[in-house]
Amino acid sequence: DAGVTQSPTHLIKTRGQQVTLRCSPKSGHDTVSWYQQALGQGPQFIFQYYEEEERQRGNFPDRFSGHQFPNYSSELNVNALLLGDSALYLCASSFPTAWDGYTFGSGTRLTVV
Amino acid sequence: QKEVEQDPGPLSVPEGAIVSLNCTYSNSAFQYFMWYRQYSRKGPELLMYTYSSGNKEDGRFTAQVDKSSKYISLFIRDSQPSDSATYLCAPINTGNQFYFGTGTSLTVIP
Questions:
Q1: Beta bridge partners of residue B27, listed in sequence order
Q2: Closest approach of chain B CAs to the CA of A107, in angstroms?
Q3: Which of A99, A108, A109 best tests the B interface by mutation, with the highest count of B CBs <10 A?
């Protein structure tokens, strides 16, 4: 049973560029949440998708946007990259209310130069 | 004030020691309290969780919540080198949104 898979694992982008990160949820899960984890910090909630709609959003600017596809996979898009966007981006999948089944992927390490 | 404050690390203990990891939180609406373990270059994995105040034991791990003082603890008995990781506390709000602490880095020395 595959867990949460994220791609790519590492990425280097230039300030001002745009980036798309991808996530495939664990089999059977239909809710995807995205987190940003800066070095030495805990994960910060970006947003959550369920039924292809953004259900909740954390305190992140509109430069951060997402999408969920009918197969429950998800994308995180970040526009106009800033140096401060450098972080580990984590995707977590779950059922809508089954917080105990929250499964994280290994993340995408984004470096903005 | 941050939603969740976690004791800063790093923490280094000898094998077999009892480890205490602690967090405080500010939102009295939190009801579920999770502990995640994160190994280097990996995503967090759920260790255990508690609901409301009280203790919950799972093998060598005990999670404790005191809602009156808004204090969360994780105890590890007979610590092993394989326990070396970063431990994150994460209360959850009624919307199933997680609020992670900054994490405490633990090293267990053989």
A1: none
A2: 6
A3: A99
pLDDT digits (tens, 9 = 90+) for A7-26: 999 999 999 999 999 999 99
pLDDT (0 to 100) of residue A99: 67
Q: Is B43 on the interface with A (CB under 8 A)?
A: yes
Tell me whether residues B97 and A97 touch, CB distance under 8 A.
no
Residues of B in contact with A90 (CB under 8 A): 43-44
State the pLDDT at residue A102: 84
> Which tokens hold the place of B74?
């994780």
Nearest C-alpha in A relative to B97: A45
Which tens digits make up the pLDDT trace of B53-85? 889 999 999 999 999 999 999 999 999 999 999
What is Dmax (Cα atoms) for chain A? Answer: 38
Task: Quote the pLDDT of residue B33.
Answer: 92
Whole-Å CA distances, B8 to A8, A41, B60, B94, B103: 31, 10, 22, 27, 7
